[in-house]
Structure formats: C-alpha cells, structure tokens
Amino acid sequence: MKGSTFARAASLLSPLFSLAQAQEKWTHPGTGIEFWKQTVDTSQTSGGFEWGYALPGEPTGSNDEYIGYIKGSAAGKKGWSGVSHGGGMPNALLLVSWPEGDAVKTTFVYAGGYVNPDPYTGNATLTQISHTVTDDHFELIYRCQWCWIWDQGGADGSQLPTNEVQVIGWAQHKDVPSGTSWTFHNNGQSQFGAQPAQARNAKYFEWANGGGTTPTATPTATPSGGPTPTPSQAVPTTCVGKPAPTGSFDYIVVGAGAGGIPVADRLSESGKSVLLIERGPPSLGRFGGTMKPAWLNGTDLTRFDVPGLCNQIWVDSAGIACTDIDQMAGCVLGGGAAVNAALWWRPVEKDWDYNFPAGWKAADIKAATDRVFKRIPGTDTPSTDGKRYKQEGFNVLSTAFSAAGWKQVKATEQPNEKNFTYSHSVFMYEKGQRQGPLGTYLVSALERKNFQLWQNTKVRRVVRSGGKATGVELDGGDGGYCGTVKLNDGGRVILSAGTFGSTKLLFRSGIGPKAQLNIVKNSIQDGSTLINETQWIDLPVGLNLNDHVNTDTVVRHPNVSFYDFYKAWDGEYPSDSKQYLADRSGILAQSAPNIGPVAWEDVKGSDGIERAIQWTARVEPSPPATDNTSMTISNYLGRGSTSRGALSINGALNIFVSKAPYLQTQEDFDAVVTSIKNLQAAMAKVPGIVFEVPAPNVTVEAYVKSLPLTAAARRANHWIGTAKIGTDSGLTGGSSVVDLNTQVYGTENIHVVDASIFPGHIQTNPTSYIVTVADHAAAKILALGKPSGGTPGTPTPGKQAGAVRN
Ligand SMILES: Cc1cc2nc3c(=O)[nH]c(=O)nc-3n(C[C@H](O)[C@H](O)[C@H](O)COP(=O)(O)OP(=O)(O)OC[C@H]3O[C@@H](n4cnc5c(N)ncnc54)[C@H](O)[C@@H]3O)c2cc1C
After folding, report:
1. CA 574 from chain center: how many Å?
2. What is the Å distance from ligand 1's center to 334 Cα?
3. Positive or negative CA dihedral for 330, 332, 336, 339?
4. Which of 36, 84, 487, 766 fits as disulfide partner to 491, beta carbons 3.0 to 4.6 Å?
5. Cβ–ligand 1 contact at 436 (below 6 Å)
6. Measured between alpha carbons, how far is 760 from 244 in angstroms, rounded to an integer?
7. Which of the following is catalytic: 173, 718, 751, 776?
8. What is the extent of the structural domain holding 103?
C-alpha cells in the first residue's frame, strides 16, 4: 500500500492544492527582493516554514539558478530546514540550512534512495545575500547557482524552471545536524508546486549581485557547508566480499522477493539444483533476522515479523530500503513481502482476463491460484484471539457504504465481487505473524538439499554470450560473495529482482533500449565491462511502467481515534506489547495504521474501458488534515488505466522514474473524479462524517487536477510493467520483453518473473498476484527444458548462507 503520510512519514505527499492558498507574490522588507512565496502552516510543521524564489527575467543561458528565501523553524535556535530541488528526497539536489549562533549555515547533500544523504559532490554554489536569526526562526536569502541541474558522481538530474510548475519538497527537523550524519526529519515534510512565471523578474541580477535595498552583508560567494565540495573523481568500485563457492546450478534465481521465493521453491521441487541470490540481509527472525525495537529483545521476533510495526519502514529504513532506486522498496530477504502491509487478496478473474495474454487467463492460472491460496489463505482476523481491534473507523465507514447501497463481502470467499462492495482487510499473516511467501515457499525450499539461498549478495549482471546466459556475476555485499556463479549446461537464469531491480539487471546485461544501454556504457562503473554493443538486445525494457494512481481523500468522525503505531515501536503502549508477546493477539497483530475497510468499484470510461478502483481506508490523517479523528481513504486506479510511464538509469547506475505513469489520459482522470464523487455520496449518508479533503468548497475536478502527477505525490508503491509479458516481441517493434514462458525475447535461457512482467494494473494490492504469477511461471519454465543436473557448490559458512531458525 501507499506509505503513511502522517507527520513522521517519509512519503512526500501533500496536495499542491491544499497549500495553494498559501502562495503569494511578496516583497522581502529587508532587501526589497520580490519573491514568489509558499507558506507552510504551523499545522504541518511546528513553527511553520516559508520558501520563496526569484528567477532571472528571461529563461536564458543554462537557466539553472535562482535567489531563494527560507524562513525555517528553530525554537531555541535549534532546527534544520531542507529543500529538495527535485521535489522528492532521492536523486535530487537537497539544500539544508540551520542557525548557528547568529549565523546561518548551509550544506548541499544528495541521496540516491531513502537513505542517509551524502555530501553533494557536484558544483552547486550558494551565496548568502542576507540572514537573520531569532529565538524561534532563522531567515536566509541566498543565490543558488547550478542548482536546477545536478550530478552526483554520474547520477544526474534536473528540474529546470521551464514548465508551468516546479515541484519543490521540504522537510524540517527540530535539532541542528551533527557533522555529516543525519537523523530522520521529525518536524514534517511535504511538497508544493512553485510557479516559475510568477518568480521571474527583470531586476534579478541587480538583486543577485547585492543591489537589494538593505542587504545585511556584502554577498560573498562562499559555497556553503564548510569546505568547497570537490567533484569526486569516480572510479569503478571493486567487489567487496568472499569468493563465491565453486559449483554450478540448473536454475539461478536473482532476488528473494514476492516473485523470486515462490519461483525458486517450485523449481526446486523438480529436484534440479536451484540457487536463490538475495542482495539484502535476513528479515524474519526464523531466518536469522535481527532488526528490532528494544521491546522485542530476547525474543525470536524482528520488526518484520510483527504486523503492527510494518509502517516503521517509512521512518526508519536504513539497511532495509534499496539504495539505488528513487522509490521505496525492500532490499531484504522477502523484498516487498517482508516490509509491506501484507494486504493479501484472492485475485479478481477479470484482472487476468483483461490484462494477461493466452496461457495466463483466469482459467489458465486457476490451478496456480488454488495452490497459492492453499498455502497462504489470508486472514481478516489476524489477532490470534479472533477479535478485531479498534474497529471504529471500519464501523463508521461501513455504515455509510451500506446506507448508500454498497454491499459488504467476505473478500476471501467472494473475490470477484468488486463493484460497489467493501470488506474487512485480508492479510497474509498467520498465527499473528508475517508469513506469506517467506513463511511457506521459502521454508519448504530450504528443506531441500538441491536448494541454496545466498543472502547479502548483489548480482551485478547476467553473463551471456549472445542469447545464452552462462551464469551471473556477483557484486558482493556485507559478508556476501564476489565472482561468477555458473549455470549448468541447459540451465536458466530467472530475474526476480522487482520492477526496478530487474530493469537494472537487464540494462547492465546489455538488454534494453539503446539510449539506456549507452548510459551504462558511459558509466564509470560498468563502462569498460559491459557486453559488447554487437551483442546488445534492443527491447522496450523500462517502458510500460505502471502503478496504482493514488489520490488521497480524508474524512473525520468523532467516533474514530488514531492509534499511534510509531509510539508502539517505542514501547509506549506496554500493555499492547505485552499482549502481543503473550499470545500474538491485540492491535499489534494487525497492520499499521489500522487499515480498513477496503472497498471497490468499477467505472466505465467514455472510451468504453471499464476502470477498476480500490478504496483503502486507514485511521490516520493526511495533510492538511491533522485531527486524531481523521481517516485517509486512498483511491487507487488500477485495471483499465491507459496511462504509462518509464524507468531510466543514470550514470551512477541508479534507476529512477523518468516518466510518472499517472493520469495522462482524460478517461483515467475522469474515472478518479467519478469514483471520488461516488465516495462523497456514500459518506453523505452519515451526517457525522465531515469530508476534509477535498474541502467542501472545492470541486472534485479541481482537487484531482491540483495534485502533482509525480511519483512522490501519487505513488502506491505497486510498480509493475517494465518487462511486459506478451506475444508482440519487442525485437520486432512490439511492446513485450518476455514471451509466454517469461523468457526474454532474443535469449535462450533468461527469464523475468516478478511484478515487472504484468502488462497492466489490477484492482487490488499486487503481492498475491505476483506470488501466483511466480507459481504459474515455474511450471512453464520447468516444462521448457531439461537442464542437465549439476553440482551445486557448497557455500562457505557465514551469515550469507540460509541460516534458518524455525
Ligand atoms: C512499503 C510498501 C508497502 C506495500 N504494501 C503492500 C501490501 O500491503 N500488499 C501488497 O499486495 N503489496 C504491497 N506492496 C507492494 C508489494 O510489496 C510489491 O509489489 C511486491 O513485493 C513486488 O514483488 P517483486 O517480486 O516484483 O519484487 P520485490 O518483492 O521487491 O523483490 C525483489 C527482491 O530482489 C532483490 N534484489 C534486487 N536487486 C537485486 C540484485 N541485483 N541482486 C540480488 N537481489 C536483488 C531485492 O532485495 C528484493 O528482495 C507494498 C510495497 C511497499 C514498498
């Protein structure tokens, strides 16, 4: 599901609209500089926050500088304020400022993912024009040069002021930074849309050169944050790790996530040798995981086991989130299936029939579905005492749905009833703990002698000669392996590294659009070792990107009350922790943040296409709502959406969303508007429900239009589609990357089995479908060929091998 958007959450979501009233043209009284300015209210961040900018009168030259204004919150002269020049946190130039005595300090930093940022090594330069520090705030006016284009060791990006709107991100923290180590911002974060046309001014260079009315100091061009950043001379890094054991395998599966675990298990049932390679560390306690809050010390449980701790990923993802992509994804054993909210739905038949090609229709995939749901049936009462906890939100909304004629269903038993229906949430928990593919398929695989799991080992690329893979090259990790691991003759490689990870592996293996492969070729890391251009396979990898379009609405009702799962992490509800530890019951056996009901409807577009909507409610406010009685009801547009985006790679070999797949067609937009109106009509049935977002004086059309169409603002974290399955081979101008056996076109033995092969989106959260696809794909792959048998290598003992504690 989409990330939590409560004040401590990291998903940058704030309606452009909700903040639009706080935008104005404004003249700074001290300097006379005229800014376009955004004010963020104190309800969003204690002490408030202001950011403004002025641009040169004409967009000439490199067009990559501005004069900025920051008014940061700093109670007791403590606090930092950050600005993202790209909107989101990852892959953008970030400017951080804070008071120090009467001075204001600044530094530029950069993060390739949701990780602690590093000092920025590009050439952005900040020149202070004026500053003031009071007991509560600091104010800084600065000239920022080379700030709309950035480059961190080859990871380049830009957001030039050439469009109607620039998306700017902000975050605040209540303390000043210590050295170069950053702690997660704790005083709000969000985004707003800035308007370049309003910021342009012919007097720009006069101001930039210190010609304002009363600058407090003569401007001096001092790059901020201490010593001038020197652009790093990036050199290829060498693999850090132990030499890989010798030996070879019939099947090598890369990535132990929702797709990789089941496909590896099912392949190993055949008796052939299977190696599953995962770049991340163990997650659940039974596999040797150790990450946990203090109250779990002395138990076999980790943060991943406990349903109520799932949302901690949004405030503390170090060592868990992938560091080489610009979206949130789990790079641990289990991938998304270890970190997600575990929503688990029996698939809707229409999703297969509408999206998938022959051999993958509902009737074809029924046997796999039955196998999956026999192993992982899902439960709507995850607490072991069979009770549901804190159901006020469900009760209020279901009263409204029911009064409006929506029908309550039991989703586990009525999967196809998805039009004007609602249900309790269903989760892949069992016995009060996370299970899913980890607790089933991985357990059975690890019992087989012909199966091996290597953790903490990144795969760099598929080693191939022409269309034939001979093995995979490893990239090490914390205790992991380096070197090459070989396939037996007749063996196959299965990429299950997720939509971002498999796209990256294909690019690094010389498979994808020429423009992307050229970036890899020109990269310092892979340039000299990338497979020769004569062997590149030109396929539309990275295209056809899709995600559920998320549009948040917010209602409140006095019966509803927020339960702070983040405080539960800190052990602030000892009776709930105790209850959970005693017998896996209570609210902590349910996913944060109190999810449900989940509702569905289908909306027919003027193009004749039926579009599927899922509504996911949770007891948690979203900006601008802050009330403890608020509920966010997220609208996901799925099956039938006709918008598509793209993933690209940059010179630092990070994968990013280069084109967001949201609401590019009028019919997609209309479907979201219609469904929100349907929700409003239902909620109006209960007089005590107050619709907060969209606000009563705003039309639904205006509201939906006002939200940025960026990943940071609209993602649901349900990325699919970049290695599409289909019969129209991309080699001959079609849109598909893999054939009906999941084999990459133009290859003999390279497969992709994960979310990236989905041709289009589905109605519900995707994990159950991905597991089903993997189970089905394994049968097809096994039917393809008869690998020769082999001699699986013996891993050297250590934490990377599948150390299992059942
Ligand atoms: C925070 C969050 C909440 C979510 N909530 C839900 C939910 O409640 N219900 C639901 O159905 N879906 C949810 N999703 C989506 C769901 O988890 C994903 O769609 C699903 O996990 C994708 O499966 P996958 O197999 O394609 O990739 P993943 O599950 O991401 O697995 C990919 C694996 O490959 C590994 N890998 C990547 N690159 C390499 C490499 N080079 N070498 C070795 N290993 C590599 C990764 O570490 C990872 O373990 C959520 C997602 C997120 C991020």
Report:
1. 31
2. 7
3. negative
4. 487
5. no
6. 38
7. 718
8. 16-208
> Mean pLDDT throughout 399-413?
97
Sequence-ordered list of residues with C-beta below 8 angstroms from that of 94, at least 6 positions apart, any chain? 82, 83, 84, 85, 108, 109, 110, 111, 117, 120
Name the residue with the closest Cα to ligand 1, atom 45. Answer: 255
Per-residue model confidence (pLDDT) at position 212: 53
CA of 222 to the centre of ligand 1 (A): 43
pLDDT grade, residue 14 (50/70/90)?
A: very low
Dihedral-angle region of residue 571 (phi above 0 means left; psi in -120 to 50 means alpha; beta otherwise): left
Q: 191-216 pLDDT, tens per residue?
A: 888 889 999 999 999 999 876 544 44
Going by alpha carbons, the residue nearest to atom 3 of ligand 1 is 340
The reported pLDDT for the residue numbered 588 is 98
Strand, helix or coil for residue 496? coil
d(CA 159, CA 167): 8
Residue 365 lies in a domain: no
**Mean pLDDT across 114-118:** 82
Buried/exposed code over 643-678 (b: 16+ C-beta within 10 A; e: otherwise): bbbbbbbbbbbbbbbbbbbbbbeebbbbbbbbbbeb
Q: Is 548 a catalytic residue?
A: no
Q: What is the CATH number of the domain that holds 65?
A: 2.60.40.1210
Residues 6+ apart with CB under 8 A from 296: 302, 303, 306
| 128 occurs within a structural domain | yes
Give pLDDT tens digits for 615-635: 999 998 887 777 889 999 999
Percent of the chain with pLDDT over 90: 78
Task: Look at the chain and report how many structural domains it folds into.
Answer: 1
In the three-class reduction of DSSP (H, G, I as helix; E, B as strand; rest coil), residue 265 is classed as: helix
- Judge whether residue 424 has pLDDT over 80: yes
Determine if ligand 1 sits within 6 Å of the CB of residue 4.
Answer: no
**329 CB near ligand 1 (under 6 Å):** yes
Q: Is any atom of ligand 1 closer than 6 Å to the C-beta of 505?
A: yes
Token pair recorded at residue 486: 């070989």
Is residue 419 in some structural domain?
no
The band of 2, judged by pLDDT with boundaries at 50, 70 and 90, is low
DSSP characters over 420-447: SEEE---BSEETTEE-HHIIIIIHHHHT
| Distance separating alpha carbons of residues 394 and 715, to the nearest angstrom | 24
The pLDDT tens digits for 212-224 are 544 444 444 444 3
Q: Which of 765, 773, 800 to mutate to test the pocket of ligand 1 (most atoms within 8 A of CB)?
A: 765
**Which is it for the CA torsion 201, 107, 224, 30, positive or negative?**
positive
| The residue to which tokens 């089995």 are assigned | 753
Q: Is 254 in the pocket of ligand 1 (CB under 6 A)?
A: yes
Residue 566 included in any domain: no
pLDDT at 13 over 50: no
